[in-house]
Write a structure and sequence with these properties.
It is a single chain. This protein is mainly β and 411 residues long. The chain has one domain: Porin, CATH 2.40.160.50. The strands form two sheets. Strands 3-4-5-6-7-8-9-10-11-12-13-14-15-16-17-18 form a 16-stranded antiparallel β-sheet. Strands 1-2 form a two-stranded antiparallel ribbon. A hairpin with a 3-residue loop joins strand 3 and strand 4.
């Protein structure tokens, strides 16, 4: 089954090859953009700073390839920090842009790998690729993790909870193909595979009964979830890496089946909404909203249960360690205010608050939320694709806090 790790990569490369002959980039004007109601100013990014103060000439972040994918490519080493895995060093190849002269939809693709100071390895391929016509969409999320992640049991954060260090390897292969039906509405079919292998519950190995062993009825060293999904998607966002207008609506129902290789029969539903109104109206300031509902039905593996920070891009619940809040069902809400500090777009800032609601493991009823919040700085990395370097610091309950770095907006 490990050959599935190459599934998404193969599909992505095939999509590029089929569309390569006709794809054309349709990038936004990088010379001037509307700064406010009074006019426009030249936009700047990090590579303009290199030109002005170091190189005295502009070096574009894009790397031109032989395939004309319609995406602007950036290849660069990465240095990031997350409270779960510490500092990590690696490389990232990311593409963003419009594919096809008649398509207004932005596509994005990221291929990354890194190794952390705590000895953890991560490799990921994730993307949203529209066909040049805009009628088809491929969403992919493939990853391999060799990691150490603690869990704290089920339910909201409480004073009784304890930390349970765990280690595991994760092989994930998600791929969904959508077809546009009317306007911005897409219908899709997908396949989802998760394999958690070499699971080590450190406290269970010392003879303790832990939340993982109690829930699982033992200490399995491997769990597999394999199934299909039906999906509905509505997407009018102007830019996938840094939305400033439009909305995103998504519903996915996933059926994991023993006949497809899953350990048990169980189901999962994901519903999501994102909105990007401007406040004040007509200004570049965005008051963004993100809401998702993540429900499980049946005997879902413990590590597959809804958990904060395990959304597609691992950006939810800033202020908390990934996996800090876990349960059979979760509702998550976040709002973030984004504004430019300088009119040339080089510097920006955000302030955000969030809340995670989780069902109680005994009653099955949603309990009080665990709130979080924080602030962040934005540095324009690539003005052609409006990509920002995001540096955030968040706080949560029970002394939770930490820094978070990324190359796209959180949502």
């Amino acid at each position: 089954m490990r050959i599935l790790s190459f599934l998404c990569v193969s599909v992505l490369l095939s999509a590029f090859a089929v569309q390569a002959a006709d794809a054309r980039a349709a990038e936004p004007d990088s010379t001037t953009v509307a700064a406010d109601s009074s006019g426009t100013v030249p936009q700047r990014d990090a590579f303009d700073l290199l030109r002005e103060y170091v190189l005295h000439r502009r070096v574009e972040p894009e790397v031109t390839g032989t395939l004309r994918t319609g995406l602007s490519w950036t290849v660069l080493p990465t240095l990031s920090y997350n409270p779960v895995y510490g500092f990590s060093f690696g490389a990232n190849v990311s593409g963003a842009g419009r594919r096809g002269a008649e398509s207004y939809r932005f596509s994005q693709l990221s291929v990354a790998a890194n190794y952390s100071t705590t000895g953890q390895f991560q490799a990921q391929v994730r993307g949203d690729l529209f066909s040049p016509s805009g009628d088809y969409l491929l969403k992919a999320d493939c990853r391999y993790l060799d990691t150490k992640r603690s869990t704290w049991g089920l339910g909201r954060i409480s004073s009784e909870q304890q930390e349970y260090p765990m280690e595991f390897k994760l092989l994930r292969a998600y791929a969904t193909i959508f077809r546009r039906t009317s306007g911005p509405v897409f219908l899709g079919l997908g396949y989802h595979y998760d394999e958690f292998a070499d699971i080590i519950d450190q406290r269970a190995e010392q003879g303790e009964a832990t939340p993982f062993t109690i829930y699982s009825g033992g200490a399995p060293s491997r769990t597999v979830a394999s199934g299909i999904s039906v999906n509905v998607l509505g997407d009018t966002r102007d830019n996938l890496v840094n939305p400033s207008a439009g909305y995103y609506l998504s519903v996915s129902f996933r059926d994991y089946l023993t006949s497809a290789g899953s350990d048990d029969n169980w189901q999962e539903m994901w519903g999501e909404m994102r909105l990007y109104p401007h406040l004040p109206s007509g200004s570049p300031n965005v008051l963004a909203f993100w809401l998702y509902t993540w429900l499980s039905f049946g005997d879902a593996p413990y590590l597959n249960l809804p958990s904060n920070g395990w959304d597609t891009y691992g950006r939810g619940a800033r202020g908390y360690l990934q996996g800090r809040i876990r349960g059979a069902n979760q509702i998550y809400f976040e709002t973030e205010y984004r504004w430019p500090i300088t009119r040339d777009g080089l510097w920006g800032a955000v302030a955000f608050i969030n809340a995670t609601l989780t069902t109680d493991s005994e009653t099955g009823i949603f309990s009080r939320s665990n709130p979080g919040g924080g602030v962040g700085l934005r540095i324009k990395f690539n003005k052609h694709t409006n990509t920002n370097l995001a540096i955030d610091y968040g706080w949560g309950q029970a002394e939770s806090h930490g820094a978070f770095l990324g190359m796209t907006e959180v949502f």
